[in-house]
Amino acid sequence: MELAAQRFIVRQGTIGWMVYDRERKGPALLRNGDWAEKLSREEAERIKGLLANQVS
């Protein structure tokens, strides 16, 4: 999971927080097609954990 944990980071966006995907070089793309952006910090941290578990 260490590589997946390095792939996704939580960072502050223009509006709210986002989960940044270092591989895509932009906001992470969720399964439902939404971008992981304009979130609260808590939501972003939770989504980061979910994405890291899916990739590993």
Keywords:
56 residues; 38% helix; three-stranded antiparallel beta sheet; 2 helices; alpha+beta
Beta-strand content estimate? 15-25%
Give the total of domains: 1
- Work out the helix count: 2
Shape: globular
Largest sheet: 3 strands, antiparallel
Enumerate the strands of the largest sheet in spatial order, edge to edge or round the barrel: 1-2-3
The total strand number stands at 3
Contiguous low-pLDDT stretches (5 residues minimum) are: none
C-alpha-based Rg, rounded = 10 Å
Distance between the termini: 5 Å
Rounded mean pLDDT score:
91
Helix-strand pattern: HEEEH
Q: In which range does the helix fraction lie? A: 25-40%
Structural class of the secondary elements? Answer: alpha+beta
Quick summary:
This protein is an alpha+beta fold and 56 residues long.
Explained architecture:
This protein has 56 residues and is an alpha+beta fold. Helix content is 38%, strand content 21%. The chain has one domain (2-55). The protein is built from two helices and three strands, in the order αβββα. The longest helix is centred in the last third of the chain and has 15 residues, at 41-55. It starts with a helix and ends with a helix.
